DNA sequence: CTGAAAGCGCTAACAC
DNA sequence: GTGTTAGCGCTTTCAG
């Protein structure tokens, strides 16, 4: 069944040695024009394709890069993956995508799996659960090519691509303040993640700037990033049943943001009349929501591209890359009805 | 940098031959208990991982399966991929995902790429553009393991996993009819795709059953499945500027459905007052739309699982599988406000 | 200009 | 029970 042609087959058919064929195929200058043409034409005719597995074994590299994200069914990550693929493909790399579903154990397993597949490098956005980063530290110390994006590891001076989370959250919070909301809650993913904390800091800074006190009861964490049933619902329930409930919510994670709306509605709140809403999300359909949703968008596609370019640079650099490269891009605040002043 | 242990390393360290180590590692019964224990312990200690590339070369299989879909940033496919991964993973297979972006050329390139990577099998949902299926026919004739899902190839008796498109469209159309709408348009992807035509047939059958005439001007195709800018907008524009415009639209593809809403709104139509809407989509947030969207949902996750199980069966079967396996599941109609009778 | 041979990591006949 | 060897497909010294 379906046996691809090998160099040996060509060699035999043409009465040459495998090395000659190999060299001809690779355009070595030390092969006669005649022979070269002969080989090339025959290879073309039989639709010869080099066996990448054999190549990998030989070259000790796989021309593939591993991607570790929480989920592909997530607007941000599916868009980022598009960016990753676009660059990887045109540079001749394969992309192997793995999902952690926010579990640290799956993350560790995925990394092992990818390493055992001899990927040439890793593109990683940490899972919500991850606290032990020693494996990454180890790989980093060995000079293994890795680029972190969006959810980066702390305490390691690695290559990374991030957005200005602080500014994104700051602007969004300030927009709510300018719209007249002063009681603003923060619905967040796990504080494990640096980006959660940075977004929180942006929120805090905006309130501070407007001389609004930060109330701890206005800050709710969903430690599984909204992946666990009821997590978001509980958080919202607690928030809205406070003696002095918030008038607005800023949600700082994709899944949380899109998850909020049906729950708030089910609880009987109108947006923004009863509670305004702004959130980090890359949903393509935020505009179609009821009401149209104010969002902080990340340039996911571009970030995927940048991270991949960075990684391929590191992989292909002749010498170990010691200084960590780091790129930060801006978020985009798109103001829609959900964070507008409530019409009275 | 980061040199994994090999069998040779172990053999040298322990003063054994590589074959002994290999056998011990694979639990061969002809190895002394002592030696076996020694090897296993040492392997454990140095965290030995067999090199899958060498294995692939040896066994002429890669323990990986290739996936060809139009996009991961698509609700249906990202969910299906979750299903695919869940099964593949637990069966020890890798998943390599490639995207066609609805281009036949990219599809062909992806298939070649995956074949050249020696994937053990292929999971395919055709691109919208695909009309030439000769390559698939060829692979099929060679007995190469393939399973098609959702968007299947015709004229080839292959393994496949589909939904009952006819019934899904029929039920949705009938619900619109029961809600009092009689002028119902069909917004569809390319008729290249069998599922587009099946869904169209379901729509037709429902109208027929209710003695409603099928108007050709009520049927609009987006030949790139909504991937090309302005495609959906044009279709809707044409539809709504008919002398006798439709009162309802059934959209038969994920991207089209979610794409419709902002466009209709921008054109100044209220849903469902001016035009009702129902559509095939697996969006998780259809409920949050304005208005909440009536959807025909496909069990994407399950379909991904089923297709993968089927594929792995074929791959691992001792003898070529000649009779084509075929599974069909039901869609689920979730009725929400967008297809309700318009309140007058 | 071309061929022979070694080697990437692993397994499996085939010795002994 | 364990070692030797060949071979998976390819590249690359080293010879000639």
Task: Characterize the structure shown.
Chains A, B: It comes from Mucilaginibacter aquatilis. Two copies of one chain form a homodimer. With 344 residues, the first copy, chain A, is α/β, with parallel strands linked by helices. Chain A folds into three domains: 44 residues, 434 Repressor (Amino-terminal Domain) (Orthogonal Bundle); 130 residues, Rossmann fold; 141 residues, Response regulator (Rossmann fold), CATH 3.40.50. In chain A, 42% of the residues lie in helices and 15% in strands. Chain A has twelve helices and twelve strands. In chain A, the strands form two sheets. Chain A has a six-stranded parallel sheet with strand order 2-1-3-4-5-11, sandwiched between helices. A six-stranded mixed sheet of chain A has the order 7-6-8-9-10-12, sandwiched between helices. In chain A, strand 8, helix 11 and strand 9 form a beta-alpha-beta unit. The model of chain A has no long low-confidence stretch (mean pLDDT 92). At the A-B interface, helix 4, helix 5, strand 2, helix 6 and helix 11 of A face helix 4, helix 5, strand 2, helix 6 and helix 11 of B. Chain A binds a DNA duplex (16 and 16 nucleotides) through helix 2 and helix 4.
Layout of SSEs?
The structure is a homodimer of 344-residue chains.
Chain A: H1 7-14, H2 18-25, H3 33-45, H4 52-59, E1 64-69, H5 75-90, E2 94-99, H6 104-116, E3 121-124, H7 134-141, E4 146-149, E5 159-163, H8 165-178, E6 184-188, H9 194-209, E7 219-221, H10 231-240, E8 248-251, H11 254-266, E9 276-280, E10 294-297, H12 300-316, E11 326-329, E12 332-334
Parallel strand pairs in A: 1-2, 1-3, 3-4, 4-5, 5-11, 6-7, 6-8, 8-9, 9-10
Antiparallel strand pairs in A: 10-12
Chain A binds a DNA duplex (16 and 16 nucleotides) through helix 2 and helix 4.
């Amino acid at each position: 069944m379906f046996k691809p042609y090998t160099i040996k087959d060509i060699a035999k058919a043409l009465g040459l040695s495998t090395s000659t064929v190999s060299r001809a195929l690779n355009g070595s200058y030390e092969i006669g024009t005649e022979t070269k043409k002969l080989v090339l034409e025959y290879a073309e005719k039989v639709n010869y394709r080099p066996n990448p597995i054999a190549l990998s074994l030989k070259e000790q590299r796989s021309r593939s890069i591993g991607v570790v994200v929480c989920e592909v069914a997530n607007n941000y990550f599916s868009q980022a993956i598009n960016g990753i693929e676009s660059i990887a493909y045109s540079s001749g790399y394969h992309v192997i995508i793995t999902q952690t579903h926010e579990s640290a154990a799956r993350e560790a397993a995925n990394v092992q799996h990818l390493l055992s597949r001899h990927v040439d490098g890793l593109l990683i956005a940490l899972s919500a659960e991850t606290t032990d980063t020693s494996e990454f530290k180890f790989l980093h110390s060995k000079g293994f090519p890795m680029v972190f994006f969006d959810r980066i590891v702390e305490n390691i001076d690695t290559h990374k691509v991030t957005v200005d989370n602080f500014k994104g959250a700051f602007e969004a919070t300030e927009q709510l303040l300018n719209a007249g909301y002063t009681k603003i809650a923060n619905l967040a993913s796990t504080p494990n993640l640096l980006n959660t904390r940075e977004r929180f800091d942006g929120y805090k800074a905006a309130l501070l700037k407007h001389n609004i006190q930060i109330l701890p009861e206005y800050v709710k964490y969903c430690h599984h990033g909204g992946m666990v049933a009821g997590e978001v619902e509980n958080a919202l329930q607690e928030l809205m049943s406070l003696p002095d409930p918030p008038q607005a919510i800023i949600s700082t994670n994709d899944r949380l943001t899109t998850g909020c709306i049906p729950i708030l509605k089910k609880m009987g709140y109108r947006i923004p009349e009863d509670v305004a809403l702004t959130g980090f999300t890359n949903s393509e359909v935020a505009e179609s929501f009821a009401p149209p949703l104010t969002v902080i968008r990340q340039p996911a596609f571009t970030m995927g591209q940048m991270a991949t370019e960075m990684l391929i640079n590191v992989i292909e650099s002749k010498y170990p890359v010691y200084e960590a490269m780091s790129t930060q891009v801006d978020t985009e605040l798109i103001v829609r009805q959900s964070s507008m002043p409530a019409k009275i």
